[in-house]
C-alpha cells in the first residue's frame, strides 16, 4: 500500500477515503449476490466472484491518480463482496450437512489467511518487490485456488437454488434477520475501530512506542483467530446465544477496564480479550440467518452481511466525531457500549440443539451388552440348544417358560 500511495501521490486522509471504496463496493453487490445465489446457486456466484476479484487485484498498482485508485478499490470490494456472500452460503450448507457448528472454523481459516497474506506481503516488500509484480502474483495464486476449489465442489452440492418467484431480495427479511444484522453491525464497527484507532490510542494517548502500539491490533486479531478455531467447542457447550452473550459481555467489560486503566499493557490485554469475545459473532449470526429459511439462505446472508458491513463504514467517522469533541478514550468507549448491546441482542437468537460435547449437559452412556461367562452347552444332533439343555421328559425348570403341561388321561 505505501508504494501505491506514493504512485498516485495521495495524502493519508485521501488514502483513507479511497480505502472506503472496498466497503462501498461490497455494500453495492451483496444484496444482488444474495439474489443470484437463490436464482443460480452459490457455486457459480462464488466461482465468478472469486475469479473476477482476483482479476481486479492488480488494478490498484496500475492507477495513476486518486480517482483511478478509488475506482479500482470499489471494483475489488464489489467482486469480493459477492464472493463473501456466496462462500458463507456454501459454508452454511456444509455446516447443515455436518450437523455441527463448524462455521467459526471457516472464519478462523479466513483470519489465518489474512495473517499469512500480511506476512507474505511484508516479506515481499522487505525484498524490494514492486507493487505490480507483487499484486500480479497474488492474483495468479488466488485465481488458481478459486479454480481448484470450484473443481472440487460438485454442482449438486450447491442446493441453494430457490423455487421460481421465491428468490426476491428481502423475501426472508424477518425480525430474526434484523437482530442478526444489528449484532453484526456492532461487531463490525468494533473490529474496524480496533484496526483504525487502537495503535493511535496507544501512541498518542498512552505514549507507547510504535512497536508496542502495533501489538495492540495484533493481539486483537490473533485472539480473534484463536477464538474462531475454538468456537465450535464453545457453541456446542454454551449454545450460539450463550456464546455471544458471554463473549460480547466479556469484551465490553475488558474494553471498559482497559480504557479506564490508562496503561498500555493493560489495554493490550483488554484488546486481546475483546478479540476473543467477538470472534464468533459473524459466524454465529450468518449461520442463524442461513437456518432461518434454508431455501433462501442467499438473500438472508446478504441482508445480514449488508447491515454488518455498514459498521465498517460508520465506525471510523463515528469514533472520530466523539473523539474530536471529548477524547479518544471516550470514542473507543463507544465500542465497549456496542459490545454490551450485542450481548443484549444475542438473547433474541433462537436456541439450537447441542450436539456432542457439552460442559453443562452429560449424556448417559449406553450400556455395553452383557457377555455371559457360562460355557455353552453343545447342541444335540437335529435339536436346538434350548432343547438340548432341557432335562429328560421335556420339563423345564425355567420359571419364564411356566410349568410343564399336564399329562393327558
What does this structure look like?
- The chain has one domain: MFS general substrate transporter like domains (Growth Hormone, Chain: A), CATH 1.20.1250.20.
- Helix 6 packs across helix 12.
- The chain has 15 helices and no strands.
- It is globular.
- With 409 residues, the protein is mostly helical.
- The longest helix has 33 residues.
- The termini are far apart.
Order of helices and strands: HHHHHHHHHHHHHHH
Distance between the termini: 110 Å
The tally of helices reads 15
Largest sheet: none
Low-confidence stretches: 155-172, 353-369, 380-409
Strand fraction equals under 5%
**What's the CATH H-level superfamily name?**
MFS general substrate transporter like domains
User: Any idea what the shape is?
Assistant: globular
Structural class comes to mainly alpha
What is the number of E strands? 0
Work out the radius of gyration.
Answer: 29 Å
The name of the CATH architecture is Up-down Bundle
Mean of residue pLDDT? 77
What share of the residues lie within helices? over 70%
Which fold name is given in CATH as the topology? Growth Hormone, Chain: A
The CATH top-level class label: Mainly Alpha
| Overall tally of domains | 1
